[in-house]
Amino acid sequence: MALFRAIFHIVETKRGFMAQSIEQAMRGFAPSLPLAVAYSGGADSSALLHLCARRWPGQVFAIHVHHGLQAAADGFAQHCQQVCAGLGVPLALAYVDARPQAGQSPEDAARQHRYRALVEQAQHGFAQPAASMALAQHADDQVETLLLALSRGAGVAGLAAMPAQWQRGGLDWHRPLLAVAGQALRDWLVAQQLTWVEDPTNLQTDYTRNRIRQQLLPVLEQLFPQFRSTFARSCSHAAQAKALLQELAAQDAQATGLPPQIHALQHLSPARQANVLRYWLWQQHRTSPSTAQLAELQRLVQACRTRGHNIHLKVGSGFVGRDGTHLQWCGWVQSPSSGSSKP
Question: What is the pTM of this model?
Answer without folding.
Answer: 0.84
